[in-house]
Structure prediction request, 340 residues.
Amino acid sequence: MYQTSITPKEAGQRLDKYLHRILPEAGNGFLYKMLRKKNITLNGKKADGSEKVAAGDRVSIYFSEETLARFMGQRQPSQQEESVYRAAFHRLSPVPVLYESEHILLADKPAGVLSQKASVTDFSLNEWLIGYLLESGFMTKGELALFKPSVCNRLDRNTSGIVLCAKSLQGAQMLGALLKNRTLHKYYQLYVKGCIAEEKLIEGYLSKDEKYNKVSISFDIPAGNETDRAKIRTKYRPLRQEHDKTLLEVELITGKSHQIRAHLSGMGHPLLGDYKYGDRAWNESYRQKFGVQSQLLHAYKVVFPRLEEPFSDISGRTFLAEPPAIFHLVSDREAQIRDY
Prediction:
């Protein structure tokens, strides 16, 4: 007999989904047959597989050692995979952790770090997260076969700030629902060219060229196949005006690739340091004077809605990440026109 207990990281999923994780080589028909015959039980009782498992629940599997080993397959990540996670942790650290619970982690991603790897040899925040949890003892290598923690939202490589990470299945489900329903509010700080004096909500249509990883914005209703373009909404308010630029707070109402950069550029206010959508001559002047190498875009604030257990600790809370030093370096407070 093999017996295991559901950990908080695994709670919230259906029993049949959990069984597929620990017995990846077993088919649906076989698992349901074993449940009917009580060769697999939940808390010592017959189950049909549709039950939602909770932390502390006991799953008992009455298989021979040979059968169990055959259906479990290669459950644990290889030594090489584990070494990649640990290497990513050491290579990318320090990554500030703004908040951590049993279910989620909020990381302050530095500019230059990928959220998720773009090629096999990359180290990204996703690998850093797993390495961090292995190094801290929160997870074992064996537990990674049952649930693999991951980042839940992406920031561009050169965008810094708050990244939402799931440490458990419940955490992943909660964050996924908030992002899908747009009930978690995300705010950015950025410098744009020119003077912006009023708060505004702007709308448009975005299409992406996958080959060149670049988006285009139109402000008119697209003709023809509307599925080629996604409607976007971006809300901004000025925080401070300076002689040639404005520090903005932007709230993403929708969240599409490069949305902030392309949308504001299309309004005639490109981001400082953005060579893909911005003003090259203006960017060069700041590169030579202050060393600005990429867009000054920082995800500095997230606001959670009201949540029930087991997430009452973050219910209604706001989390902040201080903008990088380069934001303060380029600030021209002596020449500012207005402070909001």
Remarks:
- The two ends are 67 Å apart (CA to CA).
